[in-house]
Amino acid sequence: MEVLVVGAGAVGRWVADTVDAPVAFADVDPQRAEDAAAAAGANARAVALDTDEQFAVVAVAVPLRVAAAAVERHAPKATDAVVDFTGEMAGPLAAMADAAPDAEHASFHPLFAPEHAPGRVAITEQTPGPVTDAVREWFADAGNELVDVGAGEHDDAMATIQGRTHAAVLAFALAADDVPDALATPVYEELAALADRVTGGNPRVYGDIQSAFGGAEEVAAAAQRLADAVDAAGGAADEDVDNGASGDDGAAFAEVYDDAGR
Known about the structure:
The chain contains ten helices and eight strands. It has helices spanning about 10-20, 30-40, 65-75, 90-100, 130-140, 150-175, 185-200, 205-215, 215-240, 250-260, and strands at about 5, 25, 45, 55-60, 80-85, 105-110, 120-125, 145-150. The N and C termini lie far apart (about 50 Å). The model has no long low-confidence stretch (mean pLDDT about 95).
């Protein structure tokens, strides 16, 4: 069987390298499809994005913001199965059901950048069958750990796992000053390393994640709650000093700190 990989970027190339079948690349940039096919070897070729050829499997590996639209456009080219590797599940799976109702459907989300493969891959099988089983086997054989999850559970989790996590790391990077390495604490070093990893990626990818899953507003609200607790503790301490008391007991901050640890 031949697999049509829609999207010849890093994820699409990783998909092509992993599947144990001939591959055809299609991309909005024809030259990128040609380059990906050349890099993939003798069992790969490039086809036009608007090709009317049929393929056993259509694998969509495009940015999040165009995932559902790409599935709608290319799913009818599948004779057996449609799968996607876009990072969101509910939207692409709904598009598969509409555009290719008779095909097998599954959504895969590699929880790592392609350069860090193999790793953990989340999967929702909407209408499984022998072909999606074969796709699963290809990725398992490549050393990936497959994690079955419902589409809604996955997308809800990504709001924290990706959206809020990336927003918090980027906010730290924006707020941090340069400091002497000799003064770094273990916590700072770990957070700075995360900031380097996130800011060393593709800004469009991270922007798509923020658009799809949010996170910045929640992180901003949490930071404001922390700031308010510190202000409250400081104000109470000033009042206690004026009254000759021993100062605030830090109850406002302790409440925020305890909530953060739950």
